[in-house]
Amino acid sequence: MREDDVQLGKPIVVYKDTKANIEALTSVVQGSYAYATDTDEPGWYDGSNWQWFNPLVCAGELYASGTNVVTANSITLAAGTATSGAVADTRTLNETYYVVQETAKFDIQYIFTGLTGSPRIVNFVGRYEGNPAHDVWIYAWDFNLSSWTRLTAAAQDFPSSSTDAAFVFEFPSNVTDFISAGETRVRIYHDSAAVGSHYFYTDYIAIQTQTMTLTTPGTFYAASSLSEGVESNTTLDGASGTITVDVAGIYHVGAQVSFSGTSGMTIDCHIFVNGTKVDKLGFVRTLGNATSYGSASITGLYSFSASDVVTIRGSSDIPNSWSSIDQLNLNVTRVN
Length: 336
Description:
Layout: E1 2-3, E2 6-7, E3 15-17, H1 19-23, E4 33-36, E5 41-45, E6 50-52, E7 59-65, E8 69-71, E9 74-79, E10 81-84, E11 98-101, E12 106-112, E13 119-129, E14 136-142, E15 147-150, E16 165-170, E17 184-190, E18 199-209, E19 212-214, E20 221-222, E21 227-232, E22 234-237, E23 242-245, E24 249-261, E25 266-273, E26 276-286, E27 294-304, E28 309-316, E29 321-334
């Protein structure tokens, strides 16, 4: 160390070794300093344990947001007359409508493309403004049978009304028959006698897809196909849903999840490290029905070794269950 051209001294070299060897030392005096050469960490002995300081930012984040909701790509009007609007008006809930006049029976077919999971729910907002005695039903195209299948057994799926309502329809359990090459088709059909003053209004229509299949009760399945966020001294693999810790230490582990799924199922969701469930990092929730959303958070500390692999996994108590993740954020941040 110099001041102007005068040498005042030299840096002091503290004890150096690997972290494991330093922590194995005996008869260490409280207040001693050392440097771990394998982890680039300075540390001090507090009389009982070595306390290490690592200025490295170590964090990893995986997330999913709204990828399970798909709006219509196009509309085929097989019967009826479109009087206003277009398919784009069905993608946002804003009281701007795609309107079809009942000039004959109407047959509105919504085409959804780019689905990455099986279709599970149709969400619809709008109304049929016509004769209360007229029947309007909703169908989905079965690619296996090459025919339309009703989604309910109700006498009327869209009773006549002068005000909008929100409708939710579930696909049959053989969901894979209703998707082909990422495409799903939904039909709203009316075959009663035509009255020109009757109209069908679509404000919003979307399909909710499943993002996890929970086949066997008690078996945990990893959330995958996630987006990658913060990556600092961690290794992210969004496709498989893994965060690999590159630097050992104590980390804060957090997860926020919003999801729906099989009616009445109890979902057990936990953090796993190297394929082993961490009991203290998880939650259990029961869904009332498929349209109910559950939300929960996971938070806590965990001591990781280098190369530990972190995943978030879920299981159900009902065979062949499904879950649709609306929002998910999994993150680890080193605190020591």
